[in-house]
Design goal:
Elements lengths: L1 H7 L3 H10 L14 H32 L16 H30 L6 E8 L2 E5 L5 E2 L2 E4 L3 E8 L4 E5 L4 E5 L5 E6 L4 E7 L11 E7 L3 H15 L2 H11 L2 H4 L21 E3 L5 E3 L2 H9 L22 H13 L3
Parallel strand pairs: 1-5, 4-10
Antiparallel strand pairs: 1-2, 2-3, 5-8, 6-7, 6-9, 9-10, 11-12
Helix pairs in contact: 3-4, 6-9
The protein binds dinuclear copper ion.
Protein backbone atom coordinates (compact mmCIF):
# COMPACT_ATOMS: atom_id res chain seq x y z
CA UNK A 1 0.00 0.00 0.00
CA UNK A 2 2.75 2.42 1.02
CA UNK A 3 4.72 1.69 -2.16
CA UNK A 4 1.66 2.39 -4.33
CA UNK A 5 1.21 5.75 -2.62
CA UNK A 6 4.92 6.56 -2.81
CA UNK A 7 5.07 5.97 -6.55
CA UNK A 8 2.03 8.18 -7.02
CA UNK A 9 3.46 11.05 -5.00
CA UNK A 10 6.64 12.52 -6.38
CA UNK A 11 7.40 14.98 -3.57
CA UNK A 12 10.44 13.87 -1.60
CA UNK A 13 8.98 15.23 1.63
CA UNK A 14 5.80 13.21 1.28
CA UNK A 15 7.63 9.97 0.58
CA UNK A 16 9.92 10.68 3.53
CA UNK A 17 6.88 10.96 5.79
CA UNK A 18 5.39 7.78 4.34
CA UNK A 19 8.57 5.76 4.67
CA UNK A 20 8.86 6.93 8.27
CA UNK A 21 5.26 5.93 8.91
CA UNK A 22 5.93 2.49 7.44
CA UNK A 23 8.48 1.85 10.21
CA UNK A 24 5.57 1.80 12.63
CA UNK A 25 1.99 0.68 12.28
CA UNK A 26 -1.25 2.53 11.62
CA UNK A 27 -1.60 3.08 15.37
CA UNK A 28 1.96 3.23 16.68
CA UNK A 29 5.35 4.63 15.63
CA UNK A 30 8.31 2.23 15.29
CA UNK A 31 9.14 0.15 18.37
CA UNK A 32 12.56 1.42 19.38
CA UNK A 33 12.94 0.47 23.05
CA UNK A 34 12.75 -2.89 24.77
CA UNK A 35 9.56 -2.00 26.64
CA UNK A 36 7.72 -0.97 23.44
CA UNK A 37 6.57 -4.45 22.24
CA UNK A 38 4.99 -5.24 25.63
CA UNK A 39 3.15 -1.91 25.73
CA UNK A 40 1.79 -2.41 22.21
CA UNK A 41 0.75 -6.01 22.90
CA UNK A 42 -1.23 -4.93 25.96
CA UNK A 43 -2.82 -2.09 24.02
CA UNK A 44 -3.92 -4.45 21.24
CA UNK A 45 -5.19 -7.01 23.78
CA UNK A 46 -7.33 -4.38 25.56
CA UNK A 47 -8.61 -3.07 22.21
CA UNK A 48 -9.43 -6.65 21.12
CA UNK A 49 -11.29 -7.45 24.36
CA UNK A 50 -13.23 -4.17 24.09
CA UNK A 51 -14.13 -4.85 20.46
CA UNK A 52 -15.24 -8.41 21.29
CA UNK A 53 -17.58 -7.27 24.08
CA UNK A 54 -18.83 -4.31 22.01
CA UNK A 55 -19.90 -6.64 19.20
CA UNK A 56 -21.33 -9.23 21.64
CA UNK A 57 -23.35 -6.72 23.69
CA UNK A 58 -24.65 -4.71 20.72
CA UNK A 59 -25.64 -7.92 18.84
CA UNK A 60 -27.53 -9.38 21.80
CA UNK A 61 -29.17 -6.01 22.45
CA UNK A 62 -30.28 -5.69 18.82
CA UNK A 63 -31.60 -9.24 18.86
CA UNK A 64 -33.60 -8.57 22.06
CA UNK A 65 -34.98 -5.31 20.70
CA UNK A 66 -36.31 -7.13 17.63
CA UNK A 67 -37.49 -10.27 19.44
CA UNK A 68 -39.31 -8.49 22.26
CA UNK A 69 -40.63 -5.49 20.32
CA UNK A 70 -44.20 -4.38 20.96
CA UNK A 71 -46.60 -5.79 18.37
CA UNK A 72 -50.29 -6.78 18.13
CA UNK A 73 -51.15 -9.98 19.97
CA UNK A 74 -48.19 -9.74 22.36
CA UNK A 75 -49.04 -8.52 25.86
CA UNK A 76 -46.47 -7.16 28.34
CA UNK A 77 -45.40 -10.07 30.60
CA UNK A 78 -44.28 -9.72 34.23
CA UNK A 79 -40.46 -9.96 34.18
CA UNK A 80 -38.74 -12.76 36.15
CA UNK A 81 -37.03 -11.45 39.34
CA UNK A 82 -33.49 -12.53 38.47
CA UNK A 83 -31.27 -15.31 37.14
CA UNK A 84 -28.54 -16.09 39.68
CA UNK A 85 -26.18 -18.22 37.50
CA UNK A 86 -26.30 -15.63 34.70
CA UNK A 87 -25.61 -12.73 37.06
CA UNK A 88 -22.69 -14.56 38.66
CA UNK A 89 -21.18 -15.25 35.24
CA UNK A 90 -21.43 -11.67 34.02
CA UNK A 91 -19.97 -10.29 37.26
CA UNK A 92 -17.19 -12.77 37.94
CA UNK A 93 -15.91 -13.24 34.41
CA UNK A 94 -15.37 -9.49 33.71
CA UNK A 95 -13.73 -9.14 37.15
CA UNK A 96 -11.15 -11.75 36.17
CA UNK A 97 -10.56 -10.02 32.85
CA UNK A 98 -10.12 -6.62 34.56
CA UNK A 99 -7.74 -7.99 37.18
CA UNK A 100 -5.80 -9.66 34.35
CA UNK A 101 -5.50 -6.35 32.49
CA UNK A 102 -4.38 -4.63 35.70
CA UNK A 103 -1.77 -7.31 36.41
CA UNK A 104 -0.35 -7.16 32.87
CA UNK A 105 -0.19 -3.35 32.99
CA UNK A 106 1.32 -3.33 36.48
CA UNK A 107 4.13 -5.71 35.43
CA UNK A 108 5.03 -3.41 32.52
CA UNK A 109 4.78 -0.38 34.80
CA UNK A 110 7.25 -2.00 37.23
CA UNK A 111 9.66 -2.71 34.37
CA UNK A 112 9.41 0.94 33.35
CA UNK A 113 9.94 2.28 36.88
CA UNK A 114 12.81 0.02 38.04
CA UNK A 115 15.99 1.66 36.76
CA UNK A 116 18.68 -0.98 36.14
CA UNK A 117 21.95 -0.61 38.05
CA UNK A 118 24.66 1.16 36.10
CA UNK A 119 22.29 3.06 33.83
CA UNK A 120 23.92 5.96 31.98
CA UNK A 121 22.63 9.15 33.58
CA UNK A 122 21.69 12.25 31.61
CA UNK A 123 20.26 15.37 33.26
CA UNK A 124 17.26 16.91 31.58
CA UNK A 125 16.16 20.44 32.15
CA UNK A 126 12.85 21.70 30.80
CA UNK A 127 11.78 25.30 30.52
CA UNK A 128 9.37 27.30 28.44
CA UNK A 129 9.88 26.20 25.65
CA UNK A 130 12.86 23.98 25.13
CA UNK A 131 14.82 21.02 26.45
CA UNK A 132 18.44 20.89 27.60
CA UNK A 133 20.28 17.58 28.00
CA UNK A 134 23.39 17.60 30.15
CA UNK A 135 26.02 14.85 30.04
CA UNK A 136 28.30 13.70 32.88
CA UNK A 137 31.16 15.77 31.38
CA UNK A 138 29.08 18.97 31.60
CA UNK A 139 28.21 19.17 27.92
CA UNK A 140 24.73 20.61 27.28
CA UNK A 141 22.93 19.93 24.00
CA UNK A 142 19.44 20.59 22.66
CA UNK A 143 18.90 17.08 21.26
CA UNK A 144 19.09 13.87 23.26
CA UNK A 145 21.94 11.58 22.17
CA UNK A 146 22.05 8.06 23.62
CA UNK A 147 23.94 4.82 23.01
CA UNK A 148 22.02 1.85 21.61
CA UNK A 149 21.41 -1.21 23.79
CA UNK A 150 22.40 0.48 27.05
CA UNK A 151 20.03 1.50 29.83
CA UNK A 152 19.79 5.29 29.99
CA UNK A 153 18.37 7.13 32.97
CA UNK A 154 17.03 10.65 32.56
CA UNK A 155 17.14 12.70 35.74
CA UNK A 156 14.78 15.54 35.02
CA UNK A 157 13.61 18.81 36.45
CA UNK A 158 11.61 21.80 35.30
CA UNK A 159 12.69 25.44 35.62
CA UNK A 160 9.18 26.86 35.52
CA UNK A 161 5.89 25.01 34.94
CA UNK A 162 4.87 21.37 34.52
CA UNK A 163 6.24 19.83 31.32
CA UNK A 164 6.11 16.22 30.23
CA UNK A 165 8.83 14.38 28.36
CA UNK A 166 7.40 11.96 25.81
CA UNK A 167 9.29 9.74 23.36
CA UNK A 168 6.57 7.90 21.40
CA UNK A 169 8.98 5.43 19.73
CA UNK A 170 10.20 4.33 23.18
CA UNK A 171 6.65 4.36 24.69
CA UNK A 172 7.90 6.36 27.68
CA UNK A 173 6.46 9.52 29.17
CA UNK A 174 7.08 11.32 32.44
CA UNK A 175 5.87 14.61 33.90
CA UNK A 176 8.42 17.14 35.17
CA UNK A 177 7.17 19.11 38.14
CA UNK A 178 9.05 22.26 39.19
CA UNK A 179 10.80 21.89 42.55
CA UNK A 180 11.49 18.16 42.39
CA UNK A 181 13.35 15.59 40.32
CA UNK A 182 11.60 13.00 38.22
CA UNK A 183 13.29 10.10 36.50
CA UNK A 184 12.69 7.90 33.52
CA UNK A 185 14.69 5.12 31.94
CA UNK A 186 14.77 3.24 28.66
CA UNK A 187 16.99 1.01 26.58
CA UNK A 188 16.99 1.99 22.91
CA UNK A 189 17.06 -1.00 20.57
CA UNK A 190 17.52 0.57 17.11
CA UNK A 191 20.05 3.22 16.04
CA UNK A 192 18.29 6.13 14.36
CA UNK A 193 16.57 9.41 14.98
CA UNK A 194 13.29 9.73 16.85
CA UNK A 195 11.08 12.57 18.03
CA UNK A 196 10.72 13.81 21.58
CA UNK A 197 7.75 15.95 22.60
CA UNK A 198 6.46 17.95 25.52
CA UNK A 199 3.14 16.28 26.32
CA UNK A 200 1.80 18.72 28.88
CA UNK A 201 0.33 22.04 27.77
CA UNK A 202 2.82 24.60 29.09
CA UNK A 203 1.91 27.84 27.35
CA UNK A 204 2.08 29.70 24.07
CA UNK A 205 4.81 27.68 22.35
CA UNK A 206 4.12 24.29 23.91
CA UNK A 207 3.75 22.68 20.49
CA UNK A 208 7.27 23.84 19.52
CA UNK A 209 8.81 22.21 22.58
CA UNK A 210 10.26 19.25 20.71
CA UNK A 211 13.69 17.69 20.25
CA UNK A 212 15.32 14.79 18.46
CA UNK A 213 16.50 11.61 20.09
CA UNK A 214 19.58 10.31 18.31
CA UNK A 215 20.38 6.67 19.08
CA UNK A 216 24.02 5.96 18.24
CA UNK A 217 25.34 2.62 16.98
CA UNK A 218 27.81 0.80 19.29
CA UNK A 219 30.99 2.85 19.79
CA UNK A 220 29.60 5.91 18.02
CA UNK A 221 28.15 7.52 21.14
CA UNK A 222 31.54 7.94 22.86
CA UNK A 223 32.99 9.35 19.64
CA UNK A 224 30.14 11.86 19.39
CA UNK A 225 30.61 12.92 23.02
CA UNK A 226 34.36 13.51 22.56
CA UNK A 227 33.90 15.38 19.29
CA UNK A 228 31.29 17.68 20.85
CA UNK A 229 33.57 18.46 23.76
CA UNK A 230 36.51 19.26 21.48
CA UNK A 231 34.31 21.43 19.33
CA UNK A 232 33.17 23.51 22.32
CA UNK A 233 36.69 24.04 23.60
CA UNK A 234 37.99 25.28 20.27
CA UNK A 235 35.28 27.54 18.95
CA UNK A 236 35.74 31.31 18.59
CA UNK A 237 33.36 33.16 21.01
CA UNK A 238 30.77 34.28 18.43
CA UNK A 239 30.47 30.73 17.05
CA UNK A 240 30.22 29.25 20.52
CA UNK A 241 27.50 31.84 21.16
CA UNK A 242 25.63 30.75 18.03
CA UNK A 243 25.76 27.15 19.28
CA UNK A 244 24.61 28.09 22.79
CA UNK A 245 21.81 30.19 21.24
CA UNK A 246 20.33 26.91 19.97
CA UNK A 247 21.37 24.60 22.79
CA UNK A 248 20.33 26.74 25.72
CA UNK A 249 16.91 27.37 24.25
CA UNK A 250 17.37 31.10 23.40
CA UNK A 251 16.24 30.35 19.84
CA UNK A 252 12.79 29.29 21.01
CA UNK A 253 11.91 32.86 21.99
CA UNK A 254 14.52 35.19 20.46
CA UNK A 255 14.73 35.43 16.66
CA UNK A 256 18.22 35.96 15.20
CA UNK A 257 16.92 38.00 12.27
CA UNK A 258 14.84 41.14 12.05
CA UNK A 259 11.99 39.67 10.01
CA UNK A 260 10.61 37.03 12.39
CA UNK A 261 7.73 38.30 14.49
CA UNK A 262 5.40 36.89 17.11
CA UNK A 263 8.11 35.31 19.27
CA UNK A 264 8.05 35.69 23.06
CA UNK A 265 11.32 37.67 23.24
CA UNK A 266 13.04 40.49 21.35
CA UNK A 267 15.26 39.69 18.37
CA UNK A 268 19.02 39.41 18.87
CA UNK A 269 19.70 40.89 15.44
CA UNK A 270 20.80 44.51 14.91
CA UNK A 271 20.16 45.24 18.56
CA UNK A 272 23.60 45.66 20.14
CA UNK A 273 24.40 49.29 20.87
CA UNK A 274 20.85 50.49 20.21
CA UNK A 275 18.64 52.40 22.63
CA UNK A 276 15.54 50.48 23.67
CA UNK A 277 12.48 51.27 25.76
CA UNK A 278 11.77 49.12 28.82
CA UNK A 279 8.38 48.10 30.16
CA UNK A 280 9.05 50.48 33.07
CA UNK A 281 9.24 53.42 30.65
CA UNK A 282 13.02 53.92 31.01
CA UNK A 283 15.36 53.76 28.06
CA UNK A 284 18.50 51.61 28.12
CA UNK A 285 21.43 51.01 25.83
CA UNK A 286 21.80 47.38 24.82
CA UNK A 287 25.39 46.85 25.89
CA UNK A 288 27.40 44.04 27.48
CA UNK A 289 26.08 44.79 30.97
CA UNK A 290 22.44 44.93 29.85
CA UNK A 291 22.73 41.54 28.12
CA UNK A 292 24.57 39.97 31.03
CA UNK A 293 21.95 41.21 33.49
CA UNK A 294 19.12 40.05 31.22
CA UNK A 295 20.58 36.54 31.14
CA UNK A 296 21.06 36.31 34.90
CA UNK A 297 18.09 38.42 36.09
CA UNK A 298 15.71 38.34 33.13
CA UNK A 299 12.86 40.09 34.94
CA UNK A 300 14.91 43.10 36.08
CA UNK A 301 14.80 45.11 32.83
CA UNK A 302 12.09 43.73 30.55
CA UNK A 303 11.85 45.35 27.11
CA UNK A 304 8.61 47.22 26.34
CA UNK A 305 6.10 45.09 24.46
CA UNK A 306 7.28 41.76 25.94
CA UNK A 307 5.96 39.65 28.80
CA UNK A 308 8.23 38.93 31.81
CA UNK A 309 8.43 35.18 31.10
CA UNK A 310 12.13 34.40 30.67
CA UNK A 311 13.66 31.93 33.17
CA UNK A 312 16.97 32.89 34.77
CA UNK A 313 20.20 31.35 33.50
CA UNK A 314 21.97 31.97 36.83
CA UNK A 315 24.19 28.96 37.50
CA UNK A 316 23.45 27.43 34.11
CA UNK A 317 25.96 29.30 31.99
CA UNK A 318 29.67 29.69 32.64
CA UNK A 319 31.28 33.13 32.38
CA UNK A 320 32.86 32.28 29.04
CA UNK A 321 29.47 31.16 27.77
CA UNK A 322 27.87 34.48 28.71
CA UNK A 323 30.78 36.21 26.90
CA UNK A 324 30.13 33.98 23.90
CA UNK A 325 26.44 34.88 23.79
CA UNK A 326 27.31 38.59 23.95
CA UNK A 327 29.81 38.08 21.13
CA UNK A 328 27.13 36.29 19.11
CA UNK A 329 24.61 39.12 19.62
CA UNK A 330 27.29 41.63 18.56
CA UNK A 331 28.02 39.55 15.47
CA UNK A 332 24.36 39.79 14.46
CA UNK A 333 24.80 43.55 13.90
CA UNK A 334 26.49 42.91 10.55
CU1 LIG B 1 6.53 22.10 27.86
CU2 LIG B 1 4.44 21.71 26.86
Amino acid sequence: MTTVFSSMLSSAAVSAVLSQASDGTLVFPAQASDVAPAVDKLFYAITGISAFFFVLIVSVMTWFVLKYRRRPGHEVQPSPSHNAPLEIIWSVLPSFILVGIFAAGFMIFLDMRRVPDGAYEIKVSARKWSWAFQYPNGLVVEDLHVPVGQPVKLLMNSQDVIHSLFIPAFRVKQDLVPGRYADLWFRATEPGSYRLYCAEYCGQQHSNMTANVVVHAPGEFEKWLRAEEDKLNNLPPAELGALLYKRQGCAQCHPNDTTTTGKAGPSFAKTFGTQQKLASGETVTIDENYIRRSILEPLAQVRAGFQPVMPTYQGRLRENEIDALIAYIKSLNQ
